[in-house]
Amino acid sequence: MPGSLLGTQVRRVEDPDLLTGRGTFIANLRVEGMAHAAFVRSPVAHARITGIDTGEAGKAPGVIAVLTAKDLDVEPFHGFMVLNPECARPPLATDRVRFVGEPVALVIAHDLAAALDAAELVAVDYDPLPVAVTPEDAVAPGAPLQFEAIGSNVVAGMRDPADPNLFEGATRVVRAKLQNQRIAVVPMEGNAIAAIPDGDELTVYVSTQMPHGLARMATKVLGLDRHKLRVITPHVGGGFGGKAGLTAEHAAIIAAARALQRPVVWVEGRNDNLLGMPHGRGQVQWVEMGFKDDGTLTGMHLRVLSDAGAYAGFGGALAIGPTRMMAQGVYKIPRIQYEVAAVVTNTTPMGAFRGAGRPEAAELLERMMDIAAGELGVDPVELRRRNLMEPFDSPVTTVMGTTYDTGDYRRALDEAVRAAGYEQLRAEQAERRKRGDRWQLGIGVGAYVEVTAGGGGQEYGSVEIHRDGSATIRVGTSAHGQGHATAFSMIVSDRLGIPMESIRFVQSDTAEVPRGGGTGGSRSLQLGGSAVFSAAEAVWEKGRAIAAAELEADVDDIVVHGEGQIGVAGVPSRALTWARLAEIAAESSPEEDSGLGPLAAAIDFDQGGATFPFGAHVSVVEVDVETGFVRPLRHIAVDDCGRILNPLLVAGQQHGGIAQGMAQALWEQVVFDEEGNPLTANLADYAMPSAAEFPSFEVSNTETPTFRNPLGAKGIGESGAIGSTPSVHNAVVDAVSHLGVRNIPIPCTPERVWRAIQEAAGAAQELWSDPPAAFESLPLTGGAEPEAAGADI
Of 47, 168, 236, 766, which is most buried by a Cβ count within 10 Å? Predict the structure, then answer.
């Protein structure tokens, strides 16, 4: 936007408080009489509960109460999405536990140490039951049923009708079974909540991405009066999809505080976080792609087995929703047949993790393109170019029925290849292979398109001018690190000429902001930012009408005059401050019904559809062929999120997403043993990388604005995690492909890479095994899809 503050690098206004320790998190709260909570969690994955003895714990020093399910008297519920109505979860286990870490009892004490000590004294009798740990275990013949009323462990799913012409014209069908492993969200701050009752009123401080959504769910589940519940979200130490909805622990803490009529706080420790916060990803994928002699695609058959974890966690629905929606990706694929089954297992419930279903689609497509390139003897970049969709600036509907808004996929790919120096890298790779070097070079490419603001819905935004000339923004989104205060203040400052330091930003408080959808699916700027933009436009119209009347000028001649002033174009001496305009408005107009002042506007913005950011990544790695160790060297990302308002914020999101996507490709994985015991329940065992493991990221952008909102903006929060995993994965396999390796399951740990090299030396690597029979009994496309458990979540 030429001549505008928008599009320039503006430092984040949020950071001084965070950097100087003035930020407030749940753990910083100090409330008189605050009690502390600790959960007693199941040590077994599947068992009947035959008895709970709380006697010794109740007598322990400092203990206020020890509560079980019968004490809370809260019905089982669905915390975010109803994948299957039979799989509702109680806040505390009743007669059965379904995963290691499920809360069974709740200890409330005067301090945290006392609560933790007493939790060790609660005696629970478990009668073990058989377990199903992996999704393939869950659909195996004779698998133990998790919910007998359903009759199987498949809790949701659908399939497209068989297409006999699926591979018509194909001279080669490339097949592979792929796995997108389960990973933990691991935000810096785990779940945290403080419930503070005051008579029949209740204030809840909670670390969440969706304060209003949590309030709606709490009202529904706990029978609260919505008008007497206030939800406040202070600073949040990361969310990444893991802090959506109302958790079992949230419900238990709120119910306990109400029952005891005293403040109760719970801050999740790291072990509890890795056991209890919903995990992400978790798909097994059987993929078949048909190609003609010239390398163009003819069709694709996808079968996806989605791990929902215990209680049919809503993450199981992601394969039914966004993975299916994005199954065509950036390619011209004439026919696609899609089958998906979500299954329950005796593991931590599944939820969202940055990208939520879209990374799984990009990973399977981009791995298959590289596998196909190897079989067809075509360069991976060239194979992609032959199949990319043509540029478009008006809606295009895919075979999956997904309507993309705007896109230019070739431009992003060409720019990423150019920035990487692709031809030079291939030449260096050839030299290393010729010399037989120990450290072999790998070059991986990943192209993607994703959906943002896919849940639709409106978003609230308001702008209010005060008598001192300052402004207040209120918005229904809820930032947890993205920089909303900076971006939204830039929008208002740019339109009204009010300095950013004179703009107050209000979010995440249901008493201050009347409604909102919160933050998820990279929706915030395009919906919340557009609401603020539209509100600022409405305030501008009000302000310039007042100025025109006062200055006896034509309204069309009123413009911004420097900081905090508007006046007549070309006549700097004829201007009024926003402070004066607010005074005039107050003298002539009453307060609006919204509770805002007279010089204000509130907007509920609806853009009428999702947007589709895209991009291409190139990853460069070295692999030690003697040990399997992978060393990332470079990562080049060209992401397109439409119009860029602040390049600094965009780059920050790119860097964070790339780090998490690379971590999935190389290091991170949640592992359970055959009895469902977690083997990665702490950060000594869960391989979460530090900054030292990453190379410098080379990020840039193309800009293809959307027509769906006045800013032209699409989402950027998840793009880095979507493009990076397949490009890094492809790079690792590429480094050792000359040794006969065709695929390595992620994460590409040294052991896995080494074993792949050894096995390839002995025989041709087999990539396919037949999918389970469970797909054959799925309902045809058109059956009921998962629903949100609470309105507008």
Answer: 236
By residue range, what is the domain housing residue 83? 36-129+186-276
What CATH number should be reported for the domain holding residue 566?
3.30.365.10
Q: For residue range 31-40, what is the model confidence (pLDDT) as tens digits? A: 999 999 999 9
Number of domains within the chain: 2
User: What's residue 593's pLDDT?
Assistant: 60
Tokens 């979860």 found at: 89
Q: ∠304-308-309 over CA atoms, to 5°? A: 135
Euclidean distance between CA atoms 328 and 403, whole angstroms: 11
HSE, side-chain direction, 13 A CA sphere, residue 271: 9
| DSSP 3-state of 203 | strand
Four-CA torsion 579, 584, 589, 590, nearest 10 degrees:
50
More confident residue, 236 or 783: 236
Euclidean distance between CA atoms 106 and 195, whole angstroms: 15
Whole-structure pTM value: 0.96
Q: Does a structural domain hold residue 434?
A: no
- Domain with residue 81: its CATH number is 3.90.1170.50
CA-nearest of 542, 543, 533, 538 to 578 is: 543
Last residue of a domain, one of 560, 584, 605: 605
Is residue 661 within 8 A of residue 722, CB to CB? The reply is: yes
CB 415 within 8 A of CB 700: yes
Cβ(715)–Cβ(355) below 8 Å: no
Domain boundary among 276, 294, 323: 276
- As a dihedral over the C-alpha atoms of residue 735, residue 739, residue 742, residue 747, rounded to 10 degrees, the angle is -50
Q: Is residue 716 part of a domain?
A: no
Distance of CA 791 to the CA centre of its chain: 19
163, 164, 166, 167 alpha-carbon torsion, rounded to 10°: 170
Tracing tokens 């499920």 back to the chain, one arrives at: 102
CA angle, 309 then 79 then 452, to 5° = 85
> pLDDT digits over 86-141, tens only?
999 999 999 999 999 999 999 999 999 999 999 999 999 999 999 999 999 999 99
Does a structural domain hold residue 561?
yes
Q: Which class for 626: exposed (0-12), middle (13-18), buried (19 or more C-beta within 10 A)? A: exposed
SS3 784: coil
How far is the C-alpha of 612 from the C-alpha of 714, rounded, in Å? 7
Amino acid of residue 270? R
- pLDDT tens per residue, range 601-629: 999 999 999 999 999 999 999 999 999 99
Kindly indicate the confidence band of residue 1, based on its pLDDT and cuts at 50, 70 and 90: very low
In eight-state DSSP terms, residue 770 is P
Query: HEC states along 267-323?
Result: ECCHHHHHHHCCEEEEEEEEEEEEECCCCCEEEEEEEEEEEEEHHHCHHHHHHCCHH
278: Cβ–Cβ under 8 A, 6 or more apart, which residues? 185, 242, 309, 313, 314, 315, 348, 349, 350, 351, 352
**Calpha distance 656→25 (Å, rounded):** 21
Q: Is residue 770 situated within a structural domain? A: no
